Amino acid sequence: MKKVFVYAGVIAAIFCTTLADAQTSVKPVLKITDDNAGLKLPAKFKATILAENMGKARHIVVTPQGGIYVRLAKPVNGKGTIYLQEANGKAVVKNGFGNYGGTGIYIKDGYLYSSSNEEVFRYKLDAKNEVINPAAPEKIVTGLINRWQHETKSLVLDNEGNIYVNIGAWLNSCQEKDRQKGSMGRKGCPMLDSAGGIWMFKHDKLNQTYADGVRYATGLRNIVGLDWNQQNNQLFVMQHGRDQLHDIFPDLYTVQQSALNPAECMFALKKGDDAGWPYLYYDLAQHKNILAPEYGGDGKTAADSKYLEPAAAYPAHMAPNGLLFYTGNQFPEKYKNGAFIAFHGSWNRSPEPQAGYFVVFQPFKDGKPAGEWEIFADNFSGSPEKTASGRADHRPCGLAQGPDGSLYVTDDSKGFLYKITYTP
Amino acid sequence: MRTKIVLAGIQLLLATAGFAQQKKPVTKSPVAGLKASITAGEAVYTQFCVSCHLPDGGGVENLNPPLIKTAFINGPKPRLITTVLNGMGQVEINGERYNNVMPSFNYLTDKQVADVLTFVRNSFGNKKPAVTAMDVKITRAKVVK
């Protein structure tokens, strides 16, 4: 009995510590002193902060009327999606709805589509693109796998009434034991029947499950950023490449090789494509698909040529979370139909410096990447030192284009909303 | 300051509850022994831990737990040792989820596990008694996995 009391005391003491820590760890909001919201941009571009402390702000859409919907990874006060309107250089929260966290959000043909980590919902919009009945969405897809690794269900629609949903692989590299040193790959990686790919569902059929959907493309470890390219009517996705080559196979990869590989890849997908995860990864220096060590690779042996090649490749581990094809007229001509990519920032490059925490521009020509990518908006982290340590102030995640061609960027670390404009 | 007092309280309570089975140090100079263990532990940390928990021990938001002043790091040694030996599934700490699994490090020697835990418990703002190779040996013998 006495022991029970002591245990209760320990628990109470731990609880008090947590509270005390929480009280002392409240930090003041970063003070922005320059006129670009702390960001570094090309000449004649300007950034402003429309909102702060929205929560873990993930993907975003902006309506033709300028209304802003932001998905939150975790609901705030029971609201997983918030709706904002701009006035006097600030975005003001008008309402919120949907008591479920998640990442995916998209508007198409009078409906707002939104995903939790297991389901897809849609809300009918009125003529002003505002949700008519926030409390009663239609459930379009249900029962998708969520094992809390690569669990977010990013989504986009095409022009033929199809929804494309990412179902991320729930392991790093399909090892027998996840992330265990020396553990080899599961034969045939059985999870690929229900994860590690993009699934296609109908936009208007209720309560669809795996049985109603089509595995549109497979061999994709985890997709967060994705968009429909209207120019050549094709789905483009950004893959989060596998982690920890050195930790798992220290005899095959140095820490430097592991920090710099594999590339983060952009894929242009067609129905039936197989991008090859977990059997391969794309080596940035060798410019080719390499057989994964979990499946007998040695860091040099090329992968089977039947697998899809990336459309473009970027430095390792930078976590591409947002992809947006720019179709506006506000920015200079070179940006038209090109892709903006929000790189959330790395953790898996240690002990090398971390990287990312920026928005990249990838030029396109005729619906294909053409030319070198460049950093468009930098310094979300706050300083080069904060980038190197990975202790970034802000982490870019979602991207959207406004009706006037402005670019919107969310930050899921401190819940900032940035607006980037261009004045000739 | 309040935190410190509460932490001291926890330590006292843990000791009362018989959690912290602190052996008398066997080395002739406990301070030198602790220092040597921390130095050796830092090398182990750099080789096996830093890629997930990062050089500052802060971990990675949503993915890898921090090692800074958590109840877990400052808690009972057997639980900490077991975590290193067996690995750990997804956890929630202070209301935040950490989704990456931690693999098993049972291939490390008793001394390596002791050193790295001593390093972690005396770095990143932590200040806790050393973990000894004997602590690890005892826990390892009990761990059936």
Walkthrough of the structure:
The complex is a heterodimer of chains A (424) and B (145). Chain A is mostly beta strands and 424 residues long. Chain A has a single domain, classed as Neuraminidase (6 Propeller). Chain A is 9% helix and 35% strand. With 145 residues, chain B is mostly helical. In chain B, helix 2 (30-48) crosses helix 5 (110-121). The longest helix of chain B has 19 residues, at 30-48. Chain B starts with a helix and ends with a helix. The chains are: A mainly beta (424), B mainly alpha (145).
Quickly describe the structure.
The complex is a heterodimer of chains A (424) and B (145). With 424 residues, chain A is mainly beta.
Considering the chains and any ligands shown, give keywords for the structure.
heterodimer, A: 424 residues, 4-stranded antiparallel β-sheet, 4 helices, 35% strand, globular, disordered N terminus, B: 145 residues, mainly alpha, Cytochrome Bc1 Complex, Chain D, domain 2
Strand percent estimate of chain A: 35-45%
Please name the CATH architecture of chain A.
6 Propeller
The most extensive interface, with participating residues per chain, is: A-B, 37 and 36 residues
Please give the radius of gyration of chain B in angstroms.
15 Å
**Biggest sheet of chain B: strands, sense, closure?**
2 strands, antiparallel
Name given to the CATH homologous superfamily of chain B? Cytochrome c-like domain
Number of domains of chain A: 1
Structural topology:
The complex is a heterodimer of chains A (424) and B (145).
Chain A: H1 2-24, E1 45-51, E2 57-62, E3 68-76, E4 79-87, E5 90-97, E6 105-108, E7 111-115, E8 120-124, E9 138-141, E10 155-157, E11 162-167, E12 197-202, E13 214-218, E14 223-229, E15 234-239, H2 245-248, H3 255-260, E16 264-269, E17 273-274, E18 280-283, E19 288-291, E20 312-314, E21 320-325, E22 339-343, E23 358-362, E24 364-365, E25 368-369, E26 374-377, H4 384-389, E27 396-401, E28 407-411, E29 417-422
Parallel strand pairs in A: 13-17
Antiparallel strand pairs in A: 1-29, 2-3, 3-4, 4-5, 6-7, 7-8, 8-9, 10-11, 11-12, 12-13, 14-15, 15-16, 16-20, 18-19, 21-22, 22-23, 23-26, 24-25, 27-28, 28-29
Chain B: H1 2-17, H2 30-48, H3 50-53, H4 77-86, E1 91-93, E2 96-98, H5 110-121, H6 133-142
Antiparallel strand pairs in B: 1-2
